[in-house]
Specification:
222 residues, mainly beta, two-stranded antiparallel sheet, 2 helices, 11 strands, elongated
């Protein structure tokens, strides 16, 4: 019985490994999308402000799928963001900021519907993903009026440990060609994307965030 149980476990392990090897595949691609930031300047979600400050985002990525359901990957994203008090709640303060943003991540991804190497009949799937990495930015702050007394200007190059979560959908254009639409929300790991820190007593400091939609094309290698 002991030998039988051992042989059964070995068979299950070999079968699982063979199944994983049979269904694994790689995916390489690039995308373009939109990006907005949220901070002490971009502090509202009104439609006019979001549309005015919406910036193009460019990305490249690589994914390794263990099977039809799970995968992991890396990506690099770039955008040039801006925000102005005139578009948000402090419209009389007169602060404006622009910053280049470079963000790279390691992430994991899970499909809700089987999608992969042997499933040409499954044209689309929904997925969720999450990851962590590093973001770098260099804010340039300008003033329409006098510099407010309760801020400390921080216009240098900064970086932070960032993390994100997102969701999206994939559609198979062909057996190996994939089109993806994804929403992502990222905490940048710092509070200086707007180019200043608030020094007023009792004001809480929170990390700045950025978010957006992206449309990408990828090619699967089976």
């Amino acid at each position: 019985m002991k030998y039988g149980a051992l042989i059964l476990m070995l068979c299950i392990g070999m079968s699982s490994q063979a199944q994983s090897k049979r269904t694994k595949y790689y995916e390489f691609g690039a995308g373009i999308g939109t990006l907005n930031m949220s901070n002490e300047i971009a502090n509202s979600s009104n439609v006019n402000g979001v549309l005015t400050e919406m910036a193009p985002q460019f990305s490249i990525f690589a994914r390794y799928h263990f099977n039809d359901w799970f995968g992991m990957g890396v990506d690099i994203n770039y955008a040039n963001l801006q925000a102005s008090d005139a578009n948000h709640n402090n419209f009389n303060r007169g602060l404006n900021v622009s910053t280049s943003l470079l963000n790279s991540n390691v992430f994991t991804e899970m499909h809700f519907m089987r999608f992969g190497k042997y499933h040409l009949e499954d044209k689309w799937t929904i997925y969720i993903k999450g990851g962590a990495g590093v973001s770098g930015w260099n804010p340039e702050l300008t003033f329409d009026n006098l510099i407010p007394e309760d801020i400390e200007v921080e216009t240098n190059a900064y970086s932070g440990f960032s993390y994100f979560y997102g969701f999206g959908t994939k559609y198979r254009l062909g057996y190996q060609s994939i089109l993806s639409l994804e929403f992502r929300y990222t905490n940048c790991g710092g509070d200086t994307m707007d180019g200043f820190l608030q020094t007023a007593e009792g004001v809480a400091s929170n990390n700045d965030t950025f978010w957006g939609l992206s449309l990408s094309y990828s090619y699967a290698i089976f």
